[in-house]
Design brief:
Chain B: It comes from Actinacidiphila acididurans. Chain B: This is Xanthine dehydrogenase family protein molybdopterin-binding subunit. Chain B: InterPro entries: Ald_Oxase/Xan_DH_a/b (IPR000674), Ald_Oxase/Xan_DH_a/b_sf (IPR036856), Ald_Oxase/xanthine_DH-like (IPR016208), AldOxase/xan_DH_MoCoBD1 (IPR008274), AldOxase/xan_DH_MoCoBD2 (IPR046867), AldOxase/xan_DH_Mopterin-bd_sf (IPR037165). Chain B: Keywords: Molybdenum, Oxidoreductase. The complex is a heterotrimer. Chain A is 24% helix and 12% strand. Chain A is an alpha+beta fold. Chain A folds into 2 domains: 78 residues, Ubiquitin-like (UB roll) (Roll), CATH 3.10.20.30; 97 residues, Orthogonal Bundle (DNA polymerase, domain 1), CATH 1.10.150. Among the domains of chain B are: 208 residues, Aldehyde oxidase/xanthine dehydrogenase, molybdopterin binding domain (Aldehyde Oxidoreductase, domain 4), CATH 3.30.365.10; 178 residues, Aldehyde oxidase/xanthine dehydrogenase, molybdopterin binding domain (Aldehyde Oxidoreductase, domain 4, 2-Layer Sandwich), CATH 3.30.365; 110 residues, Aldehyde oxidase/xanthine dehydrogenase, molybdopterin binding domain (Aldehyde Oxidoreductase, domain 4), CATH 3.30.365. In chain B, a hairpin with a 5-residue loop joins strand 16 and strand 17. Chain B starts with 8 loop residues before the first strand and ends in a 10-residue tail after the last helix. Chain C has 12 helices and 12 strands. Chain C is globular, with a radius of gyration of 20 Å. The chains are: A alpha+beta, B alpha+beta, C alpha+beta. Chains in contact: A-B, A-C, B-C. At the A-B interface, helix 1, helix 2, helix 3, helix 4 and helix 5 of A face helix 1, strand 4, helix 3 and helix 14 of B.
Chain lengths: 216, 741, 331
């Protein structure tokens, strides 16, 4: 029965090629992405990651595992880093989302890279580049958490965490890099964190809430 | 000919990599801050860095042509048998699903190509996870739902998936990967071994390992005016183009494969994968563009992996540890689809003096996914075994492991008798020992404690062969004084774009910023795969040749260039296929300091340091990233990466990134790579050896040897996870609290 | 994943009503495990009731020094909360030992408790699993099970609960507050999760339609500590872990809370060990004896006997560290 070389024509095109999910299975969702308000009608199953990539053409945010196990899809949601592959877009209605495309500051002579982006270049903290946007967004969020005094597992009890290599390594461990750029990533994040100005805060990545550890 | 010594120089003396080489392995200052007069060898920032840090770089699944559909592949749910029915109704009734391809309706392929690409052509299931269907839909969500709704009936057959040293169907292959003979024999191993004063006999086990590049394999394919166009994540789009042309019965110029940006591969994208074939079939079937990105969990079954190996190494030596007899037997598995033999016994043909030697591969075809290249196939597992055995020999004769290796250093490749074009293993060992702070007087095992931690240091040598494959390139001078160099190289994160532009600029006697470098498109001059650490040598030689000829032509040219400029094409078929009288290999030495927690059995690496002699380093910035990146993968191989063949189901159990543990940032407190600046005139015009793989080669053994130094335990099985350590620590009485009687 | 309806609840009562009104409903909080499992085809829903924005996002001090943690408090916020860091360090440490920074920013207190096992067979709908498909069998017993249970498992299921946080909560003697169609009730956290028995499909004692509203911690009884062993230095589930709270007075154990993670279908409150310890000298020998009293019940599978040794070592190490701290403070 294997392969007569014929194509099953009857299955070639289905009756409902454009069929959206039924009305109760989709919603209008408004997201503020990199400062721009975007309203879309989305299948409830659509993740923030797929919304960015497949609906908004923002491919800077990467899909590495689609299950929260690699960190490649990290974006900032209302200033906090999160795995966009595990967030349903409909549940983020109204959220401010910053992706890697929204980090650089536009200027008259072209855009100025975010300090973390620049530090990644300076330290060759990337190779294939696929984990890089997630690393960078994660670093921006992480620097905000650090500035707010949030502890990590390696923070001594009762103390305020510093911008040490050990802290950065632990805090950046949710971002896998198979090329093995970790040492350079740590150096880059440390550099960016020390740089004058606020590497953690960007217009759309408001870290203010982080000052208040109790509630998001 | 004395190939050693004179040319070996510590690169720090030359200043090319002096910056930031100490402490935490970081590059000190901004990459490429300093311009050297010769762009070749200068620290030069990655050309594609900005596109990558801003998210502008587009990978294979990041193209959505108008009318694009999304596909999801379905893997076989049995380990061996036949498909008896494909029940499409439920899948096709999912709103948005437009087609379900399976062997009964998929476009026919022409035979002849790699049999792993022969998908949806017949009802045979050679292993669990083998692609048996493709669901195509208007959205990724519908494709996922459709795939889950597809029902396939199978006639299941008994399967055989477990590799054992006594498997009745083990055979000796004609050749192993890379074309190496399956068996090599010199002298009389048996007699020499029996007559040796000191004998070491160890069996080492490496589990299946998965490449897991961060970008899963993906393709976006469409047909346009009879032409097949595919954005595909691969390590060489000329080869993929050729395979697609053969499979679909097209002329090569009727296929375009684009791999401008590739999110890592580590060998798994070195050969054409079913992904692009499936996407192309679906695009032909539906008449629309189709995007297929493999789910992470599908990778272990569909994109190759490092096959498990069971390796026995027997050494016979004199009282000083000079080896007389060496036997390395590597037992491994392949699939029933095609033969791939991990050439783990090959490095033993290169490394040490061994007048009497047997190196042999044995393989069995099981109902398992087809293994393939994973970073340093052969060398990575083979040197784990050999370098662990060398450490055992050092202990057996009471020699420092560095000294033992020096005693067995050789000026000629033992297997061929050819002189090495260059071999600076001794310099790497000595330089590494100096930088690492190696203490030959502190080799007693299990005596360094910090609380409940046992501390140890270990060393291992590394080697990787020099490969050189034919390539084409063109160089064009424009009237405005800029140049365009075209070569279908693949930059999978190695820095190929950057280094090829340096090579071009050097030959053109201009600066790299005046050179535009086009790669990653099969319509460019044909070029080989980014594999075998050969990319820079292969592509670079063609680029160098084209640019050198262009420079000569420009010197002869009077007056202005025509508007289309002046072009020169070159190929290196002759150079690459010319036999060399030399044995050509890179060498290195890896040092590790580990802690073994006697409470938990956790092994952690405190420091990892590698020193390599790999020809001329063309770009210290990208080279360092290559070395430490491969060392990091070696750390994973040593400590945490392992995949279990599930005997009941016939698949690798750890298929996601939560259960297959690649190293995380916290696993690497300190990692450094250094190099001996090695001048070798018998390589290629740049004087370079490959650098992409050697970093993984010695790392696992160095870590395992350090664990032995810390604990006195020789585990001989990777990865060194807490379950294994605890068992042996308990047996050795090394737990912090005594076990009750 | 089949399409589903989505509603956002504005109050816990509304969430419970919506659930009752909609067959096949599931509560969605952070979603870090639920969405993961829905993508795998392990979980499904006809309606997701979003409870992530309910006003359950506060950490409040209660009477007598207790602490009430809202169900929707994010793991990272809870770990960073000054009261938690200061008074319940074991909880902060356990949270920070779990997952990654970005996952902790999204995962909630209730969702962490509701995590499902990471057993590889459970996560693969192409294979049998009694937890996912009751009656289909448990391939893990003879299969790949290094990471699975040594305590309290059954012929039907050898899964482990993956949470770190819940282990700390068990040692602390926390209480889970629930709201359901029949009103409010509370359960000790150690009783919230079940043993698999013959019904491994049920992870918890939660009744249909019940919503976790809060977790309440009693006043801290003493210094506390969490320690976890895993395959890599971060971002990995526990092979085994220990959470302990220890009150030592005059060198004698006055009070203790001890729980193991990674050993069983639920966070394992070590009652037998605690009994041995009460009134015993705070010495490593006594700690080892206590651990053995608990672990004597272990029934390791073919490939996970190391967990018994590991749990014993961890317990002795953590209790000894706490005792040394107490001795240091007393001196």
């Amino acid at each position: 029965m294997a392969g007569k070389g014929a194509r099953a024509g009857s299955t070639r095109q289905r009756a409902h090629p454009e069929a959206p999910p039924r009305a109760e299975h989709r919603s209008a969702v408004t997201l503020r992405v990199n400062g721009e308000e975007r309203t879309l009608t989305l299948d409830h199953r659509t993740t923030v990651l797929d919304t960015l990539r497949e609906h908004l053409g923002l491919f800077g945010t990467k899909k590495g595992c689609d299950h929260g196990q690699c960190g490649s899809c990290t974006v900032l949601i209302d200033g906090r880093r999160a795995n966009s592959c595990l967030l349903l877009a409909v549940a983020q209605d109204g959220a401010r989302i910053t992706t890697v495309e929204g980090l650089a500051a536009p200027g008259p002579g072209g855009e100025t890279l975010h300090p973390v982006q620049q530090a990644f270049l300076d330290h060759d903290a990337l190779q294939c580049g696929y984990c890089t946007p997630g690393q960078i967004c994660s670093a921006v969020g992480m620097l905000g958490e650090l500035a707010a005094g949030h502890p990590s597992l390696v923070t001594a009890p009762g103390s305020r965490p510093g911008l040490t290599a050990e802290e950065i390594r632990e805090r950046m461990s949710g971002n896998l890099c198979r090329c093995g750029a970790y040492a350079h990533i740590v150096a880059a994040v440390q550099d960016a964190g020390r740089a004058p100005g606020d590497a953690a805060g960007r217009p759309d990545g408001d870290p203010r809430h982080l000052q208040d550890g109790a509630t998001p | 000919m004395n190939a050693r010594g004179a040319n070996g120089r510590d690169a720090d003396g030359r200043g090319t990599n002096a910056r930031g080489t100490d402490g935490r392995g970081t590059n000190g200052g901004p990459a490429g801050a300093r311009a050297a007069s010769d762009p070749l060898g200068a620290p030069t920032a990655r050309r594609d860095g900005r596109a990558k840090v801003t998210g502008a770089a587009r990978y294979a699944a990041e193209h959505t042509p108008p009318g694009c559909l999304w596909a999801r592949s379905v893997g076989a749910g049995i380990a061996r048998g036949r498909i008896t029915a494909v029940h499409r109704e439920d899948a096709l009734s999912v709103p948005g699903v437009t087609a379900v391809l399976a062997h009964d309706n998929a476009p026919r392929l022409l035979p002849g190509a790699d049999p792993t690409l022969w998908v949806l052509q017949d009802n045979r299931v050679p292993h669990r996870g083998w692609p048996v269907a493709l669901v195509v839909a208007e959205s990724p969500e519908a494709a996922r739902e459709g795939a889950a709704a597809l029902h396939i009936d199978y006639a299941e057959e008994p399967h055989d998936v477990l590799l054992t040293a006594r498997h009745p169907e083990l055979y000796t292959p004609e050749t192993a990967n890379g074309g190496h003979p399956g068996v090599r024999e010199r002298g009389d191993f048996g007699a020499a071994h029996a007559a040796s004063a000191v004998r070491v006999d160890g069996t080492y086990k490496v589990t299946g390992l998965h490449n897991h590049p961060m970008e899963p394999h993906a393709s976006t394919a469409y047909w346009e005016d009879g032409m097949l166009v595919a954005h595909d994540s691969n390590q060489g789009s000329t080869d993929v183009r050729n395979d697609l042309a053969a499979l679909f019965g097209l002329a090569e110029d009727q296929v375009a494969v684009i791999n401008e940006y590739v999110g890592g591969g580590f060998g798994s994208k070195g050969t054409t994968r079913p992904v692009v074939v499936l996407a192309a079939m679906a695009a032909r079937h539906t008449g629309r563009p189709v995007k297929l990105a493999l789910p992470r969990r599908h990778l272990p079954a569909v994109t190759g992996h490092r096959a498990p190996t069971l390796q026995r190494v027997r050494l016979g030596a004199d009282a000083q540890g000079r080896i007389a007899a060496l036997e390395h037997e590597a037992i491994t598995q392949t699939s029933t689809v095609k033969e791939f033999v991990e050439q783990a016994a090959v490095p033993a043909r290169v490394m040490y003096t061994s007048p009497h030697s047997v190196t042999i591969h044995r393989v069995v075809a099981l109902d398992v996914p087809t293994p393939s290249w994973m970073r340093a196939p052969g060398e990575a597992p083979g040197m784990y075994a050999l370098e662990s055995a060398m450490d055992e020999l050092a202990v057996a004769v009471g020699a420092d492991p560095i000294e033992l290796r020096l005693r067995n250093d050789t000026e000629r490749e033992p297997d061929t008798g050819r002189p090495f074009s260059s071999r600076h293993l001794a310099e790497c060992l000595r330089e590494g020992a100096r930088r690492f702070g190696w203490r030959a007087d502190d080799r007693e095992p299990a005596v360094r404690r910090e609380g409940n931690l046992l501390i140890g240091t270990g060393v291992a040598a590394a080697t990787y062969p020099v490969y050189f494959m034919p390539s084409h390139a063109t160089a064009t001078a424009a009237p405005d004084g800029t140049f365009t160099v075209a070569v279908n190289a693949a930059d999978i994160g190695t820095g190929a774009r950057t280094v090829l532009a340096q090579i071009a600029a050097s030959a053109l006697r201009t600066s790299p910023d005046r050179v535009r470098l086009d790669l990653g498109d099969s319509r460019l001059p044909a070029a080989p795969v980014a594999g075998g650490s050969s990319g820079t040598a292969s592509w670079g030689s063609a680029v160098h040749k084209a640019c050198t000829e262009l420079t000569e032509r420009l010197e002869e040219h009077d007056g202005l260039l025509p508007p289309e400029g002046m072009s020169v094409g070159a190929d290196t078929v002759q150079e690459a296929t010319a036999p060399s009288p030399y044995a050509r290999h890179a060498f290195g030495a890896t040092f590790a300091e580990v802690t073994v927690d006697t409470v938990t059995g956790e092994v952690r690496v405190r420091r990892l340091l590698g020193v390599y002699a790999a020809g001329r380093i063309l770009n210290p910035v990208t080279a360092r990233s290559q070395f430490i990146g491969a060392m990091t993968m070696g750390l994973g191989m040593a400590l945490s990466e392992g995949s279990t063949m599930d005997p009941r189901f016939g698949d690798y159990a750890e298929r996601d990134l939560a259960s297959y543990h690649v190293p995380v940032n916290a696993d690497l407190p300190s990692i450094e790579a250094h190099w001996i600046d090695e001048a070798d005139e018998h390589l290629n015009p740049m004087g370079s050896k490959g650098i992409g793989e050697i970093g993984i080669v010695g790392t696992a053994a160095a870590i395992g040897n350090a664990v032995h130094h810390a604990t006195g335990l020789r585990l001989r099985e990777l990865p060194l996870t807490p379950d294994r350590l605890l068992r042996d620590l308990a047996l050795a009485g090394l737990l912090p609290v005594a076990v009750p009687a | 994943m089949k399409p589903f309806a989505y509603v956002r609840a504005h109050s816990p009562a509304e969430a419970v009503q919506e659930y009752a009104a909609r067959p096949g409903a599931r509560f969605l909080a952070g979603g870090t495990n639920l969405i993961d499992l829905m993508k795998l085809g392990v979980e499904s829903a006809q309606t997701l009731i979003d409870v992530s924005r309910l006003p359950l996002d506060r950490v409040e001090s209660g009477p007598g020094g207790a602490l009430r943690i809202g169900a929707a408090v994010r793991n990272s916020d809870l770990a960073a909360h000054p009261a938690v860091r200061e008074r319940y360090p074991v909880l902060s440490q356990a949270l920070l030992a779990g997952a990654s920074g970005q996952l902790r920013n999204v995962a909630t207190t209730a969702g962490n408790l509701m995590q499902r096992t990471r057993c590889l067979y459970f996560q693969d709908p192409g294979k049998p699993c009694n937890k996912r498909l009751p009656g289909s069998g448990c391939p893990a017993i003879e299969g790949v099970h290094r990471d699975l249970a040594v305590l309290g498992h059954s012929e039907a299921c050898v899964a482990t609960h993956p949470s770190d946080m819940a282990v700390a909560l068990a040692a602390l003697g926390a209480t889970v507050h629930l709201l359901g169609p029949d009103g409010e009730r509370a359960l000790p956290v150690a009783d919230f999760h079940r043993l698999p028995g013959e019904r491994p499909e049920r992870d918890t004692e939660l009744r249909p339609g019940e919503l976790i509203t809060a977790v309440e911690l009693p006043p801290p009884m003493g210094p506390s500590l969490y320690r976890k062993a895993r395959d890599r230095a971060s971002y990995a589930f526990a092979l085994a872990s220990v959470a302990a709270v220890l009150d030592v007075r005059d060198g004698v154990v006055h009070d203790v809370g001890l729980a193991f993670g990674g050993l069983a279908h639920r966070p394992w409150r070590a009652g037998a060990a605690e009994t041995v310890l009460l009134g015993a000298p705070a010495t490593p020998a006594a700690f080892a004896q206590a651990a053995d009293a608990e672990l004597v019940h272990a029934r390791p599978l073919r490939d996970n006997a190391f967990k018994v040794q590991l749990a014993r070592n961890l317990a002795v190490d953590v209790l000894s560290a706490l005792a040394a701290r107490a001795a240091g403070a007393a001196a």
